[in-house]
Amino acid sequence: MQLNKLAKSIILSTTLLSIFSAAQAEDIRIAIGTQDTTINCATGGLLIRELNLLPKYLPKTGKYKDAKYDIVWKNFTSGAPLTSEMVAGRLDIGAMADFPAVNNNVAFKKTGKESIFLTVLSGSTTGSGNGIVVPVDSDVTSIQELKGKTISVPFASTAHGLLLRAIAAQGWDPKTDVKIIAQAPEVSGPALKSNKIDAHADFVPFAELFSYQGFARKIYDGAQAKTPTFHGSLANKSYAQQYPEIIQAYLRATIEADQLIRKEPEKYSELIAAKTGIPAEVVYLFHGPLGLQTRDLTWKPEYKKATQTAVETLKYLGRDDVDIDVNQFIDDQYIQKAFKAADLNYTQQLKNYAQAPLVAKDALTQKPIQSFERVSQIWVKGETKVRSYVTPENAFKDLKNLQKQGKTIRVVYNQDRDLKIKVLANLAWYATDKNGQINAFLLRGNANNWAKAHGGKVYDFNNAQKLVK
Asked: Is omega for the bond preceding 205 within 30 degrees of 0, making it cis?
């Protein structure tokens, strides 16, 4: 009798152990939503996926000892459908801009659930990245000339917020002084080409992409608004609480992706281009040194403010009727732990506002570049590295030499003297001072002001090159 009881006990224990082991070996899904063409999300999606960075950081001990990971990637062209998939429980992590992220949190709350904002991926504390463009042959050169015009924008996007702030800065009523219509980038491009709209406001990278493609010209950059904007990563809060080690693994992979593109921006700009169709020349505008936006994984006060601005603007638009506590929505514990695990100092980086640094020698003089106000760059076809120059004069001189050698020029960049952002040289304006020194500007008005204040003249790209002998 006692033997039978013992046998039954052993059988029961073995069965329970088998069930427990099976549970331990159960697959753990990690479903991540990306926005590949929104290239500022690259370090939180595309690069992690393409370089297979996530598996190296996934936990393999403790409760994860026998875990099998099912990594799922889904790509989206905007934040709204990505949010729908997260709320439906088909995605665990996603990347998007500040405005769509607020909508994400609202959508979660309406179902009795929560999402959390994990980290910033890339942004600008001054607002650069969003922009307003006009058809390339338009007579409009500034936002002041758009009164009474038709402007399209992806509704409820971070670019929509920029447009409303820019209009308010002019003292205009957005309902009567301009006609704002909803258009996604894939619709606005053809509309600009056919002059069916007077202007279009958009987020990364479309203001630059349309300009680079030659059918639009940027007349307003978000940096003029001085209002922060960014893209970041979110997670389903319950998933993060259940698998905090997986969230930290994802963020470790994000950190590595950021470090890789910082070290070799040309190489990874080409990779992003190959996977998205966004030209590498445009990708480099953002991710290269001194780029339009700064890759920054820390929750700077400006980015928290941007999230609060998104909450307030979306309420104004009647899009959100749910109260959001930004301080609860933003949860920086995971990124701080990821920094520590990567032997990085989060507090130190939190205080760092510098753009990705340019460490280079002037390609013409071979002297180290130590002043960055007038930096210019040339990307030559067939060369793996972008050439850098301390001044437009040096760049234009070398450009002539390269052209004489029959080299094909992919793109020329300048740093805007006022806005401190990288711009496409062929669409920039150039102002001299009384000594003939050349300075680059995105906006003709800024070039005019500089020339007037410094006793110089204003030139377009072609005529500015003629100043250099």
From this structure: yes
The enclosing domain of 167 has a CATH number of 3.40.190.10
Query: If we measure between CA atoms, which residue out of 23, 43, 24 comes closest to residue 35?
Result: 43
Going by C-alpha positions, the residue among 273, 262, 285 that lies closest to residue 426 is 285
Q: pLDDT tier at 438 (50, 70, 90 boundaries)?
A: very high
Residue 360 lies in a domain: no
Q: Beta strand pairing status for 376-380 and 409-415? A: antiparallel
User: Model-level pTM?
Assistant: 0.91
pLDDT in tens, 29-80: 999 999 999 999 999 999 999 999 999 999 999 999 999 999 999 999 889 9
Indicate whether 446 and 386 sit together in one domain: yes
Residues 10 and 37 in one domain: yes
- Please tell me the total count of domains within the chain: 3
Helix then strand count (H, E) for the chain reads 18, 17
Q: How far apart are CA 26 and CA 20, in angstroms?
A: 10
- Residue-number span of the structural domain to which 136 is assigned: 131-224
- The residue from 224, 251, 275 where one domain ends is 224
